Amino acid sequence: MSSQQQDQATQNLTLVQSVRDALATEMDLDDDVLVMGEDVGKNGGVFRATEGLYDEFGEHRVVDTPLAESGIIGTAVGMAAMGLKPVPEIQFSGFAYPGFDQIVSHMARLRTRSRSRYTLPMVLRMPYGGGIRAPEHHSESKEAFYAHEAGLKVVIPSTPYDTKGLLISAIRDPDPVVFMEPKLIYRAFRGEVPEGDYEVPIGEAVTRREGSDISVFTYGAMTRPSLEAAEELAEEGIDAEVVDLRTVSPLDRESIVESFKKTGRACVVHEAPKTGGLAGEITATLQEEALLYQEAPVKRVTGYDVPYPLYAMEDYYMPNAARVADGIKEAVEF
Amino acid sequence: MSTLEPDPRDGMVQVLDEEGGVVGDVPDLSDEEFVAMYRHMKLARHFDERAVSLQRQGRMGTYPPLSGQEGAQVGSAFALAEDDWLIPSYREHGAALVRGLPLRDTLLYWMGDERGSLIPEDANVFTPAVPIASQVPHATGMAWADKLKNGGETDKAFICYFGDGATSEGDFHEGLNFAGVFDTPTVFFCNNNQWAISVPRERQTASETLAQKAVAYGFEGVQVDGMDPLAVYKATTEALEKAKNPGEGELRPTLIEAVQYRFGAHTTADDPTVYREDEEVEEWKRKDPIPRLEKFLRNQGILDDDRVETIEESVREEVAEAIDAAESTVRPDPSTMFDHVFAEKTPEIQRQAEEFARLREEYGDEAFLEE
After folding, report:
1. What kind and span of H or E run contains A206?
2. Do the chains contact at B178 and A174, CB–CB below 8 Å?
3. CATH topology assigned to domain A10-194
4. Alpha helices (runs of H) in B63-114, residue ranges in sequence order
5. Is any Cβ of chain A less than 8 angstroms from the Cβ of B138?
6. What is the mean pLDDT of residues A61-78?
7. How many angstroms separate the CA of residue B196 from the nearest CA in chain A?
């Protein structure tokens, strides 16, 4: 932050610092917001996403809980039903499954079950994804589980600016949000992040690179290799448009379809396994909405349908710029 | 002796013996309150019998009967103050009616009508949870939220109901563990009715009692005769009081194990004769909480034949009216299916709602309804 002191309006933050900045900003504005989870308090979170919040807001608003995912999510459900705005953290998304019942059976459907008498203004944060040489169960990318569940919004940012604005929007949203943070790019780069509060709307994609030959639809950590591939291919005369979805549920179908109608070709990129992944949903949407604009089969560049490998092999599993470029060429050269 | 401490005579809190004789301290209730408690139990029993019958006649869906558990449900719910909260499982229709939930709504819910899920704004009752034990952490979180909002103090307690099977689930342990760590004003009320569908209490745990599990979480556990409404009332009253005003060095939560029996099936979908002996059922029926309280009230001169008959008649009328009201409620508008997913419909849900409206318009509801 100190590097930007001459400019009071913005700070130059990493993505994980912008998570912290969003939490601090919103906790400062709204006494009902609280953070809870394993090691989020004194330790500041294993990724330091809650660093310093304990000293700033105290043990009742930055709560170190017992090690129990269902307990963390289930008590947050109760808190949110009573009007607080809890932001529980699951340390790694691969450890969310003991709390999965609470997520799908209660967090997602309390509004429906109670005919809107109760709603859950809670945000479930979890770092997801691979590429950081982590042990087993620390690298999964299972956003499709949550996107498949009616009643949940699922947000995945890719820049520090969006992270802060989207997280603030998520905390202010009257409905429950699963906020998945791409830990591969927690510290990979910095970006200008305004001080104070602002919102980035949930459910709106953004075009990161304009192009006319093909649309690349992606999100989270895969946004960077997608942009890299687009730049490489520009030198070969292929002009790719890169659309960062930012929210995987609800999907911004309108922007997706609009971009596709312009280019007539699509390549969908995510690190999650192919089968049942979001790429299938996006492909089906294009079939339904823009079949006659389609110049080539939609290409899916994704993780493989195998358990996430131990890290000696993860570079082969994760899509990278080369694989994205290959996928784009396949669709363009069809 | 605190009612929260087990009675050395039989290891559990008891006020009335099986014949309605007094063996403990009778709680300080007025004659009207005693009669109201009795009437609620009769109402719960008659409602339950009629609900099972409606299911058998195909007028209602699968239903979880409560007969045998009226003493625990009504006795405990009677102990709640107006501001206290009740977090039920799916079998607490008896407790819920004490808290003012309309019988018609309970019927609608089990008839598959979503409107039965809308709990009146003035009733501090949470929506029923069907997955086992999942409501336990909710209750802890609700109580915790109340304490946080009031700067660590609270003037409310939160009672959470679950069965013996629930004590085997992770959520039971996680909810109680959080309650102990964060000292939440929660009363965990285990309706130990001896059977989790077909699996007996002995197959849930090797512990001697379920109440003793509280020791692991640092707070008090108590076993109470769940077929004795007055014992349940006393134990619950003390637990609620402690949740609000704990003594020096005392934690707020309590685990109450109300030892009781479900006379009927787990739900109308199962047949209990497959897994339990008639003798066992008969033995427990001799402990039936309703005649037990009735005998006590007759001995006290609070009830007589006339009064009992009047109550029975009014209970029959009330249930009949509720059934009429539920069955004469016109079918719900199916388009409301899309209304309670999010505060605001997403574009895709809006599209799906529009397509649904078009299909109904084009083909008529007859095309969708299986009769």
Report:
1. strand A206-209
2. no
3. Rossmann fold (3.40.50)
4. 70-78, 93-98, 103-110
5. yes
6. 97
7. 20
Q: Where are the domains of chain A?
A: 10-194, 206-332
H-only helix segments in B133-277: 135-149, 170-182, 229-244
Highest CATH level, class, for A206-332: alpha beta
For chains A and B, CB pairs below 8 A equal 137
Residue B285 in contact with partner chain A when CB distance is under 8 A: no
| Helix-helix angle B170-182:B135-149, to 10 degrees | 20
Q: How far apart are CA A248 and CA A203, in angstroms?
A: 8
Say what the pLDDT of residue B369 is: 86
Contact B145 A78 (CB under 8 A): yes
Question: What is the value of ipTM here, to two decimals?
Answer: 0.91
Interface of A with B in 94-133 (CB under 8 A): 98, 101-102, 105-106, 110-119
Give Cα separations from A308 to A49, A182, A314, A318, B63 (angstroms): 24, 16, 8, 9, 43
d(CA A48, CA B156): 36
Select which of B56, B275, B358, B363 is catalytic: B275
Distance between CA atoms of residues B95 and B130, nearest Å: 16
Whole-number Å distance between alpha carbons of B327 and B244 = 42
CB B261 within 8 A of CB B106: no
Burial class from Cβ neighbours inside 10 Å (0-12, 13-18, 19+) for residue A123 reads: buried
**Model confidence pLDDT, tens digit, residues A278-295:** 999 999 999 999 999 999
| Least confident among A7-21, A66-80, A117-131, B125-139 | A7-21
As a whole number of Å, the CA-based R_g of chain B is 22
User: How many Cβ atoms are within 10 Å of B2's Cβ, its own excluded?
Assistant: 12
Distance, in Å, from the CA atom of A2 to the CA atom of A11, rounded to the nearest integer, reads 8
Q: Residue B76: phi, psi to the nearest 5? A: -75, -45
**Is the CB of residue A87 less than 8 Å from the CB of residue A36?**
yes
- pTM value? 0.93
Half-sphere exposure of B46 (CA within 13 A, CB side): 20
Round to whole Å and give the CA distance between B169 and B190. 13
Same fold, A10-194 and A206-332: yes
B199 at the A interface (CB within 8 A)?
no
pLDDT tens across the length of chain B (371 residues)? 344 544 444 679 999 999 999 999 999 999 999 999 999 999 999 999 999 999 999 999 999 999 999 999 999 999 999 999 999 999 999 999 999 999 999 999 999 999 999 999 999 999 999 999 999 999 999 999 999 999 998 999 999 999 999 999 999 999 999 999 999 999 999 999 999 999 999 999 999 999 999 999 999 999 999 999 999 999 999 999 999 999 999 999 999 999 999 999 999 999 999 999 999 999 999 999 999 999 999 999 999 999 999 999 999 999 999 999 999 999 899 999 999 999 999 999 999 999 999 999 999 999 988 86
Determine contact, residues B159/B83, Cβ cutoff 8 Å: no
Closest CA to A238 of A203, A200, A196, A267: A267
Q: Which amino acid is at A31?
A: D
Instruction: Compute the half-sphere exposure of residue B258: CA atoms within 13 Å on the CB side of its CA.
Output: 33
